[in-house]
Amino acid sequence: MGSYSNLIRFVYNLERWKKEDLKTQKCVYGRTKHTNQEPPSSKKSAQAHTKRTSLKDENECAMEILRSIPFASLTEKGLMFAS
Hints:
- This protein is α+β, with helices and mostly antiparallel strands.
- 22% of the residues lie in helices and 19% in strands.
- It is built from 3 helices and 3 strands.
- It has helices at residues 14-19, 22-29, 49-52; strands spanning 7-11, 68-72, 77-82.
- Strands 1-3-2 form a 3-stranded antiparallel beta sheet, with no helix packed on it.
- The protein starts with 6 loop residues before the first strand and ends with a strand.
- The relative contact order is 0.23.
């Protein structure tokens, strides 16, 4: 047995993102922007972040993990993803 950790740093171009229409933003993240509601998996885009990163155990039950942690500096904004 063993374990591992994963840390990914995403840097976003927020000005460009804000120009995307709400339908595109919802498709990318798999959640609504204003209410953070997640539609059923069957109604999500195959490319939706929430669909591609859903972890399940051997019994197909969802596994909870630490998700995104926002970060910012004077020149960058984004998320750190830890699992």
